[in-house]
Amino acid sequence: MEKMINGFRHIPYKAESFSAEEMIQRSEEFYHFLDSRRSVRHFSDEKVPEEVIRNIIRSAGTAPSGAHKQPWKFCVVSNSKLKSKIRAAAEKEEQENYNIRMSERWLKDLAPLGTDTNKEFLETAPWLIIVFKEVYELNEQNEKHTHYYVNESVGIACGMLISAIHNAGLVT
Ligand SMILES: Cc1cc2nc3c(=O)[nH]c(=O)nc-3n(C[C@H](O)[C@H](O)[C@H](O)COP(=O)(O)O)c2cc1C
User: pLDDT of 14-30, one tens digit each?
Assistant: First the structure.
């Protein structure tokens, strides 16, 4: 039956439930699936259908967020010229990071990963997904209203984004 809370219509939620054995099996399988994801730094230029990218972003957009403000924007880039500009800008930032911003300790912690300032993959990968956080929204009077738990909400959405990408058999 339809329920009203503070004058707002609420849609009843029905959770799927499982036996103890099913829960153990499902949770273990899901753990193994997530554990097989890796941060990848070398990409193929093989084409990926745009619909896959749309579905991945739709999945990320189901993330919970502070007061359900969904304080994110996902921008997708496939244009080669724009990807080259993004690579150049990212490499410039990374040069500052590696040469100035990062502490000795930070560089030492990164050493086993073998990362550096070279971001060639930003031109190779068929799609770049750029995630923006929206710190505030504008009301009808063009006044700023701060969003809530923005970093946490966007962080969760990114976690769901990379899981959706992994589920599609792609890499991040
Ligand atoms: C907030 C954050 C920042 C990261 N920054 C970088 C980065 O700048 N360059 C990079 O190659 N990997 C980066 N990574 C990936 C981590 O190095 C990687 O998640 C970690 O080594 C564990 O490996 P895995 O993702 O394959 O499990 C970052 C990950 C997170 C969550």
Answer: 999 999 999 999 999 99
